[in-house]
């Protein structure tokens, strides 16, 4: 994109900061505008309530962060993050059964959201052409004289001109409203309503906890629409999250959390909550629905404006996909900032849709297993879900199936990898074997 000079990013979210990093290779100046007051240390932000909740850095997200910021994950480990092979070092429970243990070659990182965001912000702010301004409220976008190009943003006090504006304002972004006010129709939206209520608390980590393993994930399933995650984070702590679907609330008291944990298909979570020493109070969040705004289907786009991150698609947080999708979108945008500026929105949304679809098929598809969730269920979808039920059962005895599932969960491979002829054959054999073992 010849002659580009200034890009403005709305929101110093993780998506916004990664976008700024990507744009810094193509623009002379990148300005990030954040309405919140940004801390100078890795602490939670009041206006980002989810920052106190457990977050997961999937393997794909870690790979992309290392590409955008060389040495990023090494620096996190030096700060106390814990590297793990999720098939060996942690217990991953699907439909009440742990995956068969074997080295997977996949690496995940245990680290808190505030520290990941802080490290990204620190590195982005050190780029010579990136400026991060906090306590700035964006009130709208500026339409150029040609009535088809966005030329900047309006602020509560003043305005900023830009060759490109990227809205990374999160789930409550105003970008679509602003576009609609300028005559662009609202895009269609896919929505799944899991009604997640999740509660996170941190505990002191000791070697004997979880029999020496590095964590646990208990995935909900139709017979048990409740789950949990235990992840080691910096400061020698456990981050423990309990979550219920359909507005089932784990509560924030010792007794309510213990009672909830005891209802899970493994006693390990309840045991850790009883035995470990809490280091803070429990915090609750509600997440009513996952939403994907289908801007890739729009016929008309105003030039000079893009929507990214949770503003474009927000996922059920219990799948841990948000940071990785944001990183992959940033990389895609970096690669597309060449050639014809007028075609950029359409090209970006088409490319982003392919990234989103990988994550959506796993999270929204997984949520659609539950009969309480409204939505059209096709015959082919029912057949696939029936097969995946057997797959999850077989993965408890077949480590090859377990590895393939973890590759999909970590966005290293599409869900179609679970449906190859070889995997189908292993699933049929393994599910019969698993059923015999259960008997």
Please give a handful of descriptors for the protein shown.
439 residues, alpha/beta, seven-stranded mixed sheet, 12 helices, 21% strand, globular
What would your notes on this structure say?
Helix 1 (14-23) runs parallel beside helix 8 and helix 10 (379-394) packs across helix 12 (421-438). The N and C termini lie far apart (64 Å). 48% of the residues are buried. The strands form five sheets. The chain has a seven-stranded mixed beta sheet with strand order 5-4-14-15-16-13-17, with helices on one face. It has a five-stranded parallel beta sheet with strand order 7-2-1-11-19. It has a three-stranded antiparallel beta sheet with strand order 8-9-10. It contains twelve helices and 20 strands. It has 439 residues and is an alpha/beta fold. The model has no long low-confidence stretch (mean pLDDT 93).
Secondary structure blueprint with pairings:
Layout: E1 6-10, H1 14-23, E2 29-33, H2 59-68, H3 72-78, E3 82-84, E4 91-94, E5 97-98, E6 108-110, H4 113-125, E7 130-133, E8 138-143, E9 150-155, E10 158-161, E11 164-167, H5 175-181, E12 189-192, E13 196-204, E14 216-218, E15 226-233, E16 237-244, H6 254-262, H7 268-275, E17 283-287, E18 290-293, E19 305-307, E20 313-314, H8 322-336, H9 344-367, H10 379-394, H11 399-409, H12 421-438
Parallel strand pairs: 1-2, 1-11, 2-7, 4-14, 11-19
Antiparallel strand pairs: 3-6, 4-5, 8-9, 9-10, 12-18, 13-16, 13-17, 14-15, 15-16, 18-20
